[in-house]
Amino acid sequence: MARGKRTIRLAISCDGEIVPRRHFGDCPQFRIYEISEDGEPRLIEIRANTSPEEERHADPKKMKGVIALLPGCELVVSGLESPNFLRIRDTKPLQPVVTERGTVEETLEAIHRAFDDLYGLIEARRRGERPAVIPTVS
């Protein structure tokens, strides 16, 4: 990507090319992308979800295990909001986002359309703020 462009590094929870309506940590893999403000996504890596199994619903250990798999990501995208998304929103530098789109490609297009708003939330998190919002992209 060209220098000077604003970019976001994000992880999309998925099952292949599909973004199922499941909690972030319940999907079998994460696609890690860098997307620039001009909408150009670049696939960095496809990473298997090797986080520990939940001992109970919304297990904080599961959340910690998932986050450890995603160093450098600033945005995490899932097909469904979860109690751990609320914890991430309130305590972590990551910005959670819910997508109403069914595929990775459609989700990336929706993120591009919402780029300015999402980038603003990420900038707030970089300053140590924790915006009390989990946006939905569609």
In a few lines, what is going on in this structure?
The protein is of the alpha/beta class and 138 residues long. It is built from four helices and six strands; from the N terminus they run E-E-E-H-E-H-E-H-H-E.
Summarize the topology.
Blueprint: E1 7-14, E2 29-36, E3 41-48, H1 60-68, E4 75-78, H2 83-91, E5 95-99, H3 104-113, H4 115-126, E6 136-137
Q: In terms of per-residue confidence, which ranges show pLDDT below 50 for 5 or more consecutive residues?
A: none
What's the CATH topology name?
Answer: Nucleotidyltransferase, domain 5
CATH class: Alpha Beta
Helical proportion, percent range: 25-40%
Please, what is the average pLDDT?
92
Strand proportion, as a percent range, falls in 25-35%
From the spread of the alpha carbons, the general shape counts as globular
In the sheet with the most strands, the strands line up as: 3-2-1-4-5-6
Q: What string gives the helices and strands in order?
A: EEEHEHEHHE
Largest sheet: 6 strands, mixed
Number of strands: 6
CATH superfamily: Dinitrogenase iron-molybdenum cofactor biosynthesis domain
Number of helices: 4
CATH architecture annotation? 2-Layer Sandwich
Tell me the count of domains. Answer: 1
State the end-to-end CA separation: 25 Å
What structural class do helix, strand and pairing data support?
alpha/beta
Structural commentary:
This protein has one domain (7-137): 2-Layer Sandwich (Nucleotidyltransferase, domain 5), CATH 3.30.420. Helices cover 29% and strands 25% of the residues. The protein has helices at 60-68, 83-91, 104-113, 115-126, and strands spanning 7-14, 29-36, 41-48, 75-78, 95-99, 136-137. A six-stranded mixed β-sheet has the order 3-2-1-4-5-6, with helices on both faces. The protein is globular.
